[in-house]
Structure of EF-hand domain-containing protein:
Amino acid sequence: MAIRGVPSQREMTVAEFKEWLKQFDADGDGRISRADRDNSGFIDDAEVENLVAFAQKDLGMRISAW
């Protein structure tokens, strides 16, 4: 069963992962508000790390630094 929005190619770099995340910018403001835990208006490195961990654990994706 495919999870909606999860790429069939589940290996990518962090840069590719950040690009893939842009599809979840619901209001088109360049931000993913739900992932912005500190409400700074941007997804910082720590928040990206949390998203990477979620994607790897819960979505079965493999994300590498390069």
